[in-house]
Each structure stands twice: as C-alpha cells, then as structure tokens.
Write the structure tokens for this entry.
Amino acid sequence: MSLVVKFWGVRGSLPASMLPTGWRAHLQMLMKQFFTTGHSSLADVETYLNSLDLPLVGGYGTGTTCVEINSPKTRILIDGGSGIRSFSEKVMAGHAGSVKGPFHIFMTHFHWDHLMGLPFFSPHFVTNSEIHYYGVQKDLEEVIRAVFKKPFFPVPFQTLPSNIHFHILEPRKTLKIGDLEVTPYQLDHPDPCWGYKVVHKKFAYAHCVDTESTRVSAEELGPDLPLYQGIDLMYFDAQYTFPELAEKANWGHSAAQIGLDLAFRENIKHVLFAHHDPGATIAQIQDLKTQTAEYFQWRIDHAAESDEKISKVLWDFVHEGLEVRIG
Ligand SMILES: [Zn+2]
Ligand SMILES: [Zn+2]
C-alpha cells in the first residue's frame, strides 16, 4: 500500500550532458582513485564501482523533467520533458501496438523543458491508446496540439490514432484518479507554474518544480501552504546555489537551503533536490551537496543551541532513474 515515485528526467532548462572532455577528466579521476585506494585487479572493479554513489560514476542524467508516480492501482506522470522518452521505452518494450493505457499526464507549465519530450511519447502513435492531459492552464489543449505542429514535428496532432483527452483543473481543488488524489497548488515561477500534491491513503508526495519559492512563510504561502504540509517526499527546485539566488532573482528557480528550511518547518520527511542546471557537471552538483550538507548541519547545531525543535529530514540531489518508495 505504498507510493512509488520514479524520476525519468531531472535536468532543468535543456537536456544536457558533460562534454566529452569533461567525461574524460572524470574517468581519469575515477581511474586514479581506483589505484590510490588500494585496488589493483580486475576483480576489484565491481567492488570499487559499488562503493561509489551511482551519480559519481555515471552522472546525474541528461533528460528534462518527467516523474512517474504509482500507487497500487493508478499511475500518473508529471510533465513531459525529454525524460519521458525513457518511460515511453519502458512501457513499449515488448508491447508495441498493444499499449492502451490509460496514461495520465499532469502538466505543471509549458516551458520547453517540461513538454519537449511529448512527441516522443510513443503511446500517442498506438491506435486507440488512451491518453489524458491535465493542467490548470486554460490553453492546455492548444499548447499540446502546437507541440506536434509542422515544421516543429512531422506528424500533426490531428492524425494521431490515439484517443487524447484534455482536463482543465481548478486551482487547489482535489481530483480523484483511481486510488490517488491530486491537487494543484501555485508555485513561484513565471507564466505561471502549478505544483502538485499527490496523496494515496496516508502517503503524500509534493512536486515543487519549477519554483523560486519567493513565498516561504505560512502567511505568504496562504492557500498554497497545504502543498508543503503532511508530506513524505518533496521534489524541490534547487537549480542555483544560495548566493546565485540574488543574481538570478525572478528567473523562477530556487536553492536547496530554501527547501530544507521548508522541510524543517513543515516536518517534511524526505527532500530530493532537482532541476539541475544544464551546465552543472558531476563535480558542481557534488559541490552543491557539500554546501547543502554544511547548511543542514548548521541548522541542526543552531536548533540544538537555541532549544528549537526541528524535525528529522532526509535529503539528497536526485539522479535520473532513481526510484523512491514511500511507505
Ligand atoms: Zn523547468
Ligand atoms: Zn519553467
């Protein structure tokens, strides 16, 4: 009776990988470390690789935002960034032509990185497969149709053989799909952007990407505060370092320290930081992790000194392909 969340795309703004020269330098660093940590034989390779966090070996991923959420009876997706291609390959594998869905795709907003993968979602091309799009934005259907428009994509929307339905959501009103409850809340992002709270029984996931999180206090958040309350896992926008927030005001993205503060205050159990900058290398994301760990420790020490009670928070920076079970 749990929720399973899988992250198919975790980059922000644009799909991006390190340059070949960057990968070469990374490989050189790993090989040097292999020998300097006492390993020497072929048999040690597996042991050595297993001792490292997966992103330290293979990076954080290249695809842009796409998250899959499964309850025992229902599956939804949030956003169709380039990461949706990998999800599509998984559902199509061995079932080409017989994948009927239904697929439920909730859109946060329509910036390129959140919809560029949609034409590569293969169930669109399967006769009578059932696809439902959801969004608060009134122009949801118009925008999704435009993604398939020539000359941007060679197959026009009106020729797709699947059955595609559009559902406009009311802000902050819960929609029941199977055994899931999904509620849109507004984030702090241009154009605008809607986060989602997804609940199954006593388990809750909060999708908070893209957001600058300029509203932090309970008073400022007002009707959007419930997005952060009673949450087991929060997916939070941490594209920038804390000092970068000032230079990049109004760009619509946040930093891990802001997410941690929200998590401490609202008793959020687990936070995954995401929307990695397209230019961020493995080393730069590791750097962000170090800065976040320092802030995390400072918050705990500060709370201990001032007798402030703060909740226990588990956190990390997400990588593509990560799967998290809630409950
Ligand atoms: Zn984005
Ligand atoms: Zn955006």
